[in-house]
Design brief:
354 residues; alpha+beta; Phosphorylase Kinase, domain 1; Aminoglycoside 3'-phosphotransferase, Chain: A, domain 2; 6-stranded antiparallel beta sheet; 10 helices; 10 strands; globular; binds adenosine-5'-diphosphate; binds 2-acetamido-2-deoxy-1-O-phosphono-alpha-D-glucopyranose; binds magnesium ion
């Protein structure tokens, strides 16, 4: 079905004048839908990857609860311009939170005008993003509805290692024999990297509602560099806060790209690291336990390691999960993440927070 026809199934206003692809995520497909009338909003149309988010109804209900709760908090704080400060779901004409066209699932959000997202940022933007993610966690700390895992075991390192080991054993794409050094690099860190799950089981670390995809390009900033809102809410679910801290550092504090072909470009930018941590702790310190703060630098290594394992597992499986743009893309991503991990390990002493 054409995207212009799809939009007719939603409770939108105005006349569609254009539909154009937007964003560079690895999972969903996004389109900016522009309307002709100046007094009508534009929209974001997204094709939901239902091979990954298998229960679309549960997914959309989660997002509805999360955005309604955040909206309530913003109103309580006396904020204005709230339609740009959290996502707004536009339901389908039948009242559902998505539309199924017989093949694909689609959803629509209000388009946030003037919002900018970046793949590379400055320390000032990192500080602002840190505050925003701390605030996000704090807003959701008392959400009354149950928020489900939209992808079971999503940031569970033990589970990700099980998937990796299964991929090595199956060797379905015949790629295992060529990469003994990557396999060794993953295995040698496995014990250390699963400590968060052990601490959770021992009752030493609480789960909180996390964003679980705190990539730098999931924050929208206004023209002045102030955060408008956090987007990409598919993975909001219970988790350990080290995850959200770590995934931002993995993406926002990398001097290179996530898939940089030139490993020399890759290192951790310590200014961005410190600025993000400062912003985050300003809004999150009040609810974090000392052990959670102590583990934040570990979180940066953990999420970089987790992404190494996830990209490499997908490579070994023959590229079935992440969108790839060329045949060895997942291998290149793996090597780039491993390089960032090594740099984070070397600068370990410089990452300690107070
Ligand atoms: P993906 O799963 O592909 O990463 P996102 O939900 O993050 O999809 O959307 C892709 C990009 O589109 C984001 O990085 C952001 O720049 C932009 N975006 C997302 N939602 C909105 C919105 N409601 N209004 C304006 N821009 C948006
Ligand atoms: C995916 O959709 P996107 O690009 O924001 C992935 C994240 C990974 C990220 C790696 C549902 O996020 O977990 O960290 O790619 N999302 C899912 O860039 O698997
Ligand atoms: Mg995204």
């Amino acid at each position: 079905m054409k995207q212009t026809d799809l939009i007719q199934h939603f409770q939108t206003e105005g006349t569609v004048i254009s539909v154009a692809p937007l964003g560079a995520g690895h999972i969903n497909d996004s389109f900016l839908v522009k309307t002709g009338e100046t007094d009508k909003p534009d929209y974001l149309l997204q094709r939901i990857n239902h091979h990954i988010f298998k229960d679309v109804e549960l997914l959309q209900n989660n997002i509805l609860h999360v955005t309604n709760h955040i909206r309530k908090k913003l109103i309580e704080k006396g904020e204005t311009g709230i339609e740009r400060k959290t996502l707004t779901i536009i339901p389908a004409k039948d009242g559902k939170l998505f539309y199924f066209d017989g093949e694909n699932y689609w959803r629509v959000y209000l388009f946030i005008q003037g919002g900018k997202s970046y793949d590379a940022i400055t320390p000032a933007l990192a500080y602002s993003a840190g505050k925003a993610f701390g605030e996000f966690q704090s807003y959701l700390s008392d959400i009354p509805e149950k928020i489900y895992e939209t992808i079971p075991n999503f940031h569970n390192m033990e589970f990700r290692l099980e998937q990796f080991r299964e991929a090595v054993a199956n060797d379905s794409a015949g790629r295992v024999a060529d990469h003994p050094e990557i396999i060794a690099a993953i295995e040698s860190r496995a014990e250390e990297m699963t400590r968060v799950e052990r601490m959770g089981r021992e009752g030493k670390l609480p789960k909180r509602i996390n964003h679980c995809d705190t990539k730098v390009n999931n924050v929208l900033f206004d023209e002045e560099g102030k955060v408008l809102c956090v987007v990409d809410l598919d993975t909001v679910m219970p988790g350990y806060v080290v995850s959200d801290f770590g995934d931002f550092i993995r993406t926002g504090a990398n001097t290179g790209a996530e898939d940089d072909a030139n490993l020399e470009n890759i290192s951790v930018d310590l200014d961005i690291y410190a600025s993000y941590a400062k912003g985050y702790l300003e809004t999150a310190r009040s609810f974090l336990l000392p052990v959670e703060i102590e583990l934040l630098p570990f979180g940066a290594r953990l999420l970089t390691y987790m992404q190494t394992v996830r990209f490499f597992t997908d490579y070994l499986n023959g590229d079935t999960y992440y969108k790839i743009h060329f045949p060895e893309h997942n291998l290149q991503r793996t090597k780039a993440q491993l390089k960032l991990l090594t740099d984070l390990e070397e600068k370990r002493d410089k990452l300690v927070l107070k």
